[in-house]
């Protein structure tokens, strides 16, 4: 991504990244555009628990195989997280509509990375996503979706939790520090690397890890 595009993702000329963007003139829409990070996490974990309950009580799928499906769901989310971040959130805004969509869903976060109320989608959008995931997974894999969905939503919850932590807290002095370092590089040095937030797995595999 070139510098001219970077200014749309997160403006290089901004003197600091504190504060919060005012995105809507309507006060109701402005309030609905914000959420505490715990709300979507609790929502996703609650849906995961219900899905697992039905997986265990209404299907003949063995728990051992179900656990493998859960892991597959988690890995699937981490890959989609990477792809969405790289190719949708950082798409080239070559027309006014793309520019507006890009800034609304991600550019505002690069401009105001410390705005804790905009580190996750609003609850009603998160609930809609969860419903769409359920119907799509059920259509594709039938009863296995009851195991796949919890793994996928656990991955989503991990992403939200890690993303909040790297913006809200100092990096830990352990192996998790790489998540803080990579995301800082992505925000403040090179937006074309470190697209994985919850894990650097796909950055390693697809060659977008920051250079040491």
Give the structure's gist in a few sentences.
The chain has 212 residues and is an all-alpha fold. 65% of the residues lie in helices and 0% in strands.
What does this structure look like?
The chain is an all-alpha fold and 212 residues long. The chain has a domain at 36-169. It is built from 9 helices and no strands. Helix 3 runs parallel beside helix 6 and helix 6 runs antiparallel to helix 7 (145-168). The longest helix has 27 residues, at 63-89. The protein is globular and about 50 Å long. 27% of the residues are buried.
* Count of individual helical segments: 9
Rg measurement, Å:
18 Å
Q: List how many beta strands DSSP finds.
A: 0
**N- and C-termini, Cα separation:** 20 Å
Low-confidence segments: 1-16
Mean pLDDT: 80
Strand content: under 5%
Q: List the secondary-structure elements in sequence, H or E.
A: HHHHHHHHH
- The rough form would be described as globular
Going by helix content, strand content and strand pairing, the class is mainly alpha
Largest sheet: none
Share in helix: 55-70%
């Amino acid at each position: 991504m070139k510098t001219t595009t970077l200014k749309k993702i997160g403006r290089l000329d901004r003197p600091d990244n504190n504060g919060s963007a005012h995105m809507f003139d309507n006060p109701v829409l402005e309030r609905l555009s914000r959420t505490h990070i715990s709300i979507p996490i609790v929502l996703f974990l609650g849906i995961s628990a219900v899905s697992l309950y039905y997986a265990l009580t209404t299907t003949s799928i063995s728990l051992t195989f179900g656990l493998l499906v859960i892991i597959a769901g988690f890995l699937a989310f981490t890959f989609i997280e990477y792809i969405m971040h790289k190719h949708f959130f950082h798409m080239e805004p070559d027309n006014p509509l793309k520019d507006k969509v890009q800034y609304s869903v991600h550019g505002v976060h690069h401009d105001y990375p410390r705005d804790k109320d905009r580190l996750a989608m609003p609850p009603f959008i998160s609930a809609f996503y969860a419903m769409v995931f359920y119907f799509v997974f059920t259509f594709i894999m039938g009863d296995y979706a009851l195991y796949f969905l919890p793994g996928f939503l656990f991955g989503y919850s991990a992403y939200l939790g890690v993303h909040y932590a790297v913006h809200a807290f100092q990096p830990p002095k352990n192996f998790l520090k790489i998540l803080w370092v990579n995301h800082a590089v992505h925000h403040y040095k090179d937006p074309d690397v470190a697209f994985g937030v919850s894990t650097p797995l796909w950055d390693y595999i697809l060659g977008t890890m920051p250079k040491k």
